[in-house]
Amino acid sequence: MPSSPSSSPTSKSEAPPPAAAGTADLVIRVRGLVTRFGRQTVHDGVDLDVRRGEVMGIVGGSGTGKSVLLKEIIGLMRATAGRVEVLGVDMLAADSATRRAVQGRWGVLFQDGALFSSMTVAENVMVALKEHTRLDPCLIQELARIKISMVGLPPDSCAKYPSQLSGGMRKRAGLARALALDPEILFLDEPTAGLDPIGAAAFDELIGTLQRSLGLTVVMVTHDLDSLYAICDRIAVLVDRKIKVGTIDMLLADPHPWIHDYFHGPRGRAAAVKR
Ligand SMILES: Nc1ncnc2c1ncn2[C@@H]1O[C@H](COP(=O)(O)OP(=O)(O)OP(=O)(O)O)[C@@H](O)[C@H]1O
């Protein structure tokens, strides 16, 4: 396992997308998802397939339902209608034990790291290990130390409280916690929000390196065009209450007005230049 990932990121836009997968290689399968809040319809028949080992970015205008979709996939919210399968389990129909078992196979990084403020970084990472395993306490401490090192935090951050860390360090600590149980899937909600451009690029590089070395499937809600170019294999765009999925090159050629403006606007052009 890498102690401090340092290899330079490969622009995913240059790489061919992972081979089209059969159903067996799908780790997430969303079908006909409908989400309504009162009279507001946020999703109206959303379909999404995420293949094992790919990095899927989720983008869309403000309020198009990116975060709600993520919450519905990880079971924090219940869709009005439709089907969500994760790792072959129908999450809406499964009993609580089955759902819990699947939940142990993914990690989530929320925007601010969502760390417990009264616990040190190491204690935060140990929470899931204590809850989901029966490992010896010394081994749990050692595993937490390894995860904290994997995300590039110095050893002395283990004993620090979240309030003693910078925003970027808090995100790394949240990532260490998300990786605690060696997940197969990593869900990220706007991982680079609030970071300066250099910090954001370093975080993208970390995600890319961890994804490759650990063979993770990553699902990432983001507004960050640089992240899309740097680490995403495919991108799911929420438009017109549905989803369009493609590689960056496919979406660059898409005539939908929002997609065109997003990828060909000033920020899109600036991100494309860095490819
Ligand atoms: N619990 C809720 N009750 C009622 N409406 C909600 C609830 N959660 C979200 N919404 C609405 O659903 C819509 C989609 O919200 P969501 O947070 O998913 O947007 P988003 O695409 O992530 O936006 P942003 O990019 O601004 O973060 C919004 O109009 C929001 O007000």
TrEMBL record:
The keyword Nucleotide-binding applies. The keyword Nucleotide-binding applies. CDD domains: ABC_Org_Solvent_Resistant. Residues 1-21 are annotated as: Disordered. Residues 1-14 have a biased composition (Low complexity). SMART domains: AAA. One of its GO terms (molecular function) is ATP hydrolysis activity. This is Phospholipid/cholesterol/gamma-HCH transport system ATP-binding protein. It comes from Nitrospirillum iridis.
